[in-house]
Amino acid sequence: MDLLEYQGKQLFGRHGLAVSDGKAVTTVDDAVAAANEIGYPVVVKAQVLMGGRGKAGGVKLASNEEEAREHATNILGLDIKGHITRTLWIEHASDIATEYYASVLLDRSAKKPLVMFSTEGGVEIETVAEETPEKLIKENVDPLVGLTREQAIGIATKGGADADVIEGVADALVALYEVWIEEDASLAEINPLIVTPDRQVKALDAKVSLDGNAAFRHPDHADLGDKANLDPIEVQAAEQDVVYVKLDGNIGILGNGAGLVMSTLDVVAQHGGSPANFLDAGGGSDAEKVKQAVQIILSNENVKAVLFNIFGGITRCDEVANGLVAAFADLKPTVPFVVRLDGTNDVLGREILEKAALPNVYAEKTMDSAAAKVVELAKESR
Amino acid sequence: MSILVGNDTKLAVAGITGREGSFHTLNNRRYGTNVVGGVNPKKAGENVEGIPVFANWEDTVKESGANTAMIFVPPPFAAASALEAAQAGVELVVIITEGIPAHDELKLYNTIKRDHPNTRVVGPNCPGILSPGKANVGIIPASFFKPGNVGVVSRSGTLTYQIGNELAQAGFGNSSIVGIGGDPVPGSSFVDIIELFEKDDQTELIVLSGEIGGSAEEEAAEYIAANVSKPVVGYIAGFTAPEGKQMGHAGAIVSGSAGTAAAKAEALESKGVRVGRTPTQVAEIAIEILKG
C-alpha cells in the first residue's frame, strides 16, 4: 500500500526523523487556518499518489493569507493524471542549502535490506542511477544486525555528504531504516533529504509503501493510503478476495492462480486480442465466488467477450461451471463466453455446462484454442 | 532419483489439524508419501486419522524421525514454525502458507542461512514439491503427472500444472516438480533447484517457469551458462502486464525496465536457453529436444 506524502512524514516523525511542521487539511478554510497557524511562507502541496505534482501545479509557495487561499482553492479538486486532489498538506517552507537522496528497500537478489544514498537529491533517482551511477551509494544491511550508526556514517561519508552534516545524515539513515523495519515497509524513500542553511538535515518529501501482508500487526495503518482514489471495482474485488486489475482492452479474463492468469493475458495478446482485465479467482473458488467474479468483469463496459481459463488443482471445475450457470441466471450477460476447463473434476464441469446449454458459451479444449476463439468473438461483436 | 522429496521422505506437518492442512496432508499420504506426524501445541497427543500430533517440532522430530516439514499455519505464525523446524534439525522445510509478511521471510531466510545452513527452505507461498510415483509434499494435483525425465521448477502453481499437463499429453513425465513460490524472499531460488536437477541422474531436461518481477530468472540464466550441461527450456509469464501494477503474487510487480518479461526472456535466450512464448510452445520445444 502506497502512502500519501503527509502520512509518510507522520511515520517519519514518529521515528525521530526531522520533518517540517505541517497539517493535512481537506477544505480551503482549514488550509488558510493551518497556514496562519504555521506561519508564512508555507508550501501548499497536493496529496496524491502520483509523481510530477509540481509540474501539474499541485505544489505552490504562499507568502501570505491571500496566496494561501488562492493556491488551496486551485489545488483542491485538481486532477493530477487521473488522481483527484482531496487533501492538502500545508507546511512551513524550508530554506534549502543542499538536496540529498536516501532510501531503504528490499534487495531481492541479495535477500537483504538495501540502503541507498546520493548527494544528487531532488531529481529522479533513476536518472542518477543511469547517468552517474558512481554518485549513488548502495549498501546491503544484515537484517539480523540492523543498520548500525557506524555503517550509516560510512554510507554518508562514501556518498560524499558535506563533512559537517555526516552525523546528521547518518542519524536520518538510521531513523529511515527504523521506519522501514518497524512499520513493515517495502520502500521508505526521501527525495529530497535537505540540508538547511543552519545545517539541519530534514526530510522534505516522503515516499513510503507498506506491506499489506503485515497489516495484522499494524492496526494503525488501516486508515492510511489514498482510499478515495482507488478504483471502486478493485475495492469490491479486494473485499471478495479476488485479485482484479483493470486493463485497457476488451476481452474479460478469469483464471485461477496469478501465473496462469498472466500467461492467459499473454496468449490472448499473441492471438491479436487485448485483455480488459487481470482476474485471479484464487485457489478453491466456489460457485458464489465465480459468480461475483463474473459480475466484476462485466462491470467494465469495454468487455466484448470473456475467457475462462481454469486449470483445477484445489479449484474444482464443477464449482466453476456451477458459478457460471448461476451468473448467467442472475446477470444475463449479452457477451459471448469461451470456457476452458482442465484439471480437478473437469469432466463433471463440462457436463454441467453442456446440460445448462447457456446461450453464447463456447467450450474449448486447450488454452491456445480458447484464446484464439475469444479473440475472434471479440472482433465480431465490435 | 528425483530431487528433494522421494521414498526417503518422512513428512511432518505444522497446521495438520486445520481444514486445508488436514485435507492436503491426507491427500499426500494417499499418494504414498510417508507422513509421520503433525504439530499443534494445543492438540498434542491427539491424532489425525492415525497421524500422531506433537506439541512442537523438537518432540515431532524426536518421536517420529521426520526429515521434511510442511508448514500450513496462518501467516502470522508461519515463519516462526519454519524456524522451529530448522532448529529441531529438519533438513527440508516446505512453506505452503500464502501472505507471510516480507520482513518475516527476510529474517527467516537470513537466520536459517546463518544458524542452520543444512536446512533447505522451499516457499513460502508455493504449491510444494512432487516427485511422481514417489512422494507429494504440498498441494500439487498429482494425478496429472507421471514419472519421467523432465524436471520442472516454477514460481507459479497453476502454470506448472498447465506445462506439466502439456508434457504428459505428449507422453513425457517428470522427475520432480518444484514450486519455489512467487514471494519477494523465497527460501530457494531457481539457481538452487537447477543445481539439484543438474546433479540428478533421472532428470534429462529442465523446464524453468518464471514470471515478471525481481531478477531470479536473470540470475538463473547466468548460472545455467556457467554450470548446467543439461538442456533448459524457459517460460516467462507477464509480457502484457502493465508497469507498476501488482498481479497477485507479491513478487510479480514490475517497476521500471528491469524485471520485465521481455528482459527476462532475453537474458535466458542470450545464454542459449530456448524460451517458449506460450506454455504449449514450452512443451513443444521440450519434446523436440527430448526426441533428439
From TrEMBL, chain A:
Q: Glycosyltransferase: is it a keyword of this entry? A: no
| EC id | 6.2.1.5
Q: Where does ATP bind?
A: K45, G52, R53, G54, E91, S94, E99
Q: Sorted alphabetically, which Pfam families does this protein's record hold?
A: ATP-grasp_2, Ligase_CoA
Which residues are listed for Mg(2+) binding in this entry? Answer: N191, D205
Domain called ATP-grasp: residue spans: 9-219
Residues given in the record as substrate binding sites: N256, G313, I314, T315
Q: So which cofactors does this thing need?
A: Mg(2+)
Keywords annotated in UniProt: ATP-binding, Ligase, Magnesium, Metal-binding, Nucleotide-binding, Tricarboxylic acid cycle
Q: Which InterPro entries match?
A: ATP-grasp, ATP-grasp_succ-CoA_synth-type, ATP_grasp_subdomain_1, Succ-CoA_synthase_bsu_CS, SUCC_ACL_C, Succ_CoA_ligase-like_bsu, Succinyl-CoA_synth-like
Gene Ontology biological-process entries: succinyl-CoA metabolic process; tricarboxylic acid cycle
Alphabetized PROSITE patterns for the sequence: ATP_GRASP, SUCCINYL_COA_LIG_3
Q: Which GO terms describe its cellular component?
A: cytosol; succinate-CoA ligase complex
Coiled-coil residues = none
Name of the protein this chain belongs to: Succinate--CoA ligase [ADP-forming] subunit beta
* Origin species: Patulibacter medicamentivorans
Q: Which gene encodes it?
A: sucC
From TrEMBL, chain B:
* Gene Ontology molecular-function annotations: nucleotide binding; succinate-CoA ligase (ADP-forming) activity; succinate-CoA ligase (GDP-forming) activity
Task: Provide the active-site residues from the annotation.
Answer: H249 (tele-phosphohistidine intermediate)
Biological process per Gene Ontology, one example term: tricarboxylic acid cycle
Q: Which residues bind CoA?
A: T17, G18, R19, E20, K43, I96, T97, E98
Q: Where is the CoA-binding domain?
A: 4-100
Q: Which SUPFAM superfamilies match?
A: NAD(P)-binding Rossmann-fold domains (SSF51735), Succinyl-CoA synthetase domains (SSF52210)
Q: Which residues bind substrate?
A: Y161
Record key words, sorted:
Ligase, Nucleotide-binding, Tricarboxylic acid cycle
**What would be one Gene Ontology cellular-component term for the protein?**
cytosol
Q: What class of enzyme is it?
A: ligase
Give the metabolic or biological pathway: Carbohydrate metabolism; tricarboxylic acid cycle; succinate from succinyl-CoA (ligase route): step 1/1
- Catalysed reactions, semicolon-separated: GTP + succinate + CoA = succinyl-CoA + GDP + phosphate; succinate + ATP + CoA = succinyl-CoA + ADP + phosphate
EC assignment:
6.2.1.5
Q: What does this protein do?
A: Succinyl-CoA synthetase functions in the citric acid cycle (TCA), coupling the hydrolysis of succinyl-CoA to the synthesis of either ATP or GTP and thus represents the only step of substrate-level phosphorylation in the TCA. The alpha subunit of the enzyme binds the substrates coenzyme A and phosphate, while succinate binding and nucleotide specificity is provided by the beta subunit.
What family name appears in the similarity comment? Belongs to the succinate/malate CoA ligase alpha subunit family.
- Complexes and interactors: Heterotetramer of two alpha and two beta subunits.
Q: Know the name of this protein? A: Succinate--CoA ligase [ADP-forming] subunit alpha
Source gene? Answer: sucD
